[in-house]
């Protein structure tokens, strides 16, 4: 699949995320954003906010914030990934203790991963239209021993990851089953993102 966008006829494509995983996933389908502009929002869930609306809210807010500060004709992609056990939203692991708590909770259990994608045109691109998708997948871990959890923590690829693990990292050795979108679990569901881009006049994806 190749990037069919023409710089003479189409707006810029802006990714509202500094995530190298999302950039790599876009590159997998032949898309390189013209600009990476992280939104840097407060991602604290609202009281009693459920996982699906939380992921969608953040994706939309990220795309809208960056679109509002982009003066050129542009389409902005915002995304957010949420790991949930039932109605409980697991945090992004910023320290080892948080990652350990997440892995202990996920051990031997099935959980859900929701990734929301939003596209938002800047004010200068009147032909664009806002659109969203939410993709829900499920992931089942084998039961982890204390030793295995410590080994995963030592590997370090949990840092900054929702739920304290990365599908593309060492945790893959303990994931028994995945249902849904593997790329969505990593951070950007490629089929749905491509569909959103095909629906725009910019034609970034054939």
Structure commentary:
- There is one protein chain.
- With 206 residues, the chain is an alpha/beta fold.
- It has a single domain, classed as Maf protein (Alpha-Beta Complex).
- The protein contains 6 helices and 7 strands, in the order βαβαββαββαβαα.
- Strands 1, 2, 3, 4, 5, 6 and 7 form a 7-stranded mixed β-sheet that branches.
- A hairpin with a 2-residue loop joins strand 3 (74-85) and strand 4 (88-89).
- The longest helix is centred in the N-terminal third of the chain and has 18 residues, at 51-68.
- The model is unreliable at 1-8 (pLDDT under 50).
- Its cofactor is a divalent metal cation.
- It catalyses: dTTP + H2O = dTMP + diphosphate + H(+); UTP + H2O = UMP + diphosphate + H(+).
Mean pLDDT: 93
Overall tally of domains? 1
What is the element string, with H for helices and E for strands?
EHEHEEHEEHEHH
- What is the correct CATH architecture? Alpha-Beta Complex
Strand content: 15-25%
pLDDT < 50 runs, ≥5 residues? 1-8
Give the number of DSSP strands.
7
Distance between the termini: 7 Å
- The DSSP helix count reads 6
Residue share in helix: 25-40%
Coarse shape: elongated
Rounded radius of gyration (Å): 17 Å
Most strands sheet: 7 strands, mixed
Q: Label the structural class.
A: alpha/beta
């Amino acid at each position: 699949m190749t990037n069919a966008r023409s710089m003479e006829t189409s707006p810029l494509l802006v990714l509202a995320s500094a995530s190298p995983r999302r950039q790599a996933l876009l590159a997998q389908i032949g898309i390189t954003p013209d600009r990476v502009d992280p939104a840097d929002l407060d991602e604290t869930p609202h009281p009693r906010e459920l996982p699906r609306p939380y992921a969608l809210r953040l994706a939309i807010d990220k795309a809208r914030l960056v679109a509002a500060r982009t003066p050129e004709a542009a389409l902005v992609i915002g995304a957010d990934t949420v790991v949930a056990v039932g109605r409980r939203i697991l945090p992004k692991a910023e320290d080892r203790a948080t990652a350990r708590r997440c892995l202990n909770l996920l051990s031997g259990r099935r959980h859900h991963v929701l990734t929301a994608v939003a596209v938002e045109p800047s004010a200068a691109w009147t032909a664009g239209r806002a659109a969203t998708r939410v993709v829900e997948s499920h992931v089942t871990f084998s039961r982890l021993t204390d030793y295995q959890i410590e080994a995963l923590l030592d590997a370090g690829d949990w840092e900054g990851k929702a739920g304290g693990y990365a599908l593309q990292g060492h945790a893959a050795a303990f994931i028994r089953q995945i249902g849904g979108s593997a790329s969505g679990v990593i951070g950007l569901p490629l089929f749905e993102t491509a569909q959103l881009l095909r629906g725009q006049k910019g034609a970034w994806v054939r």
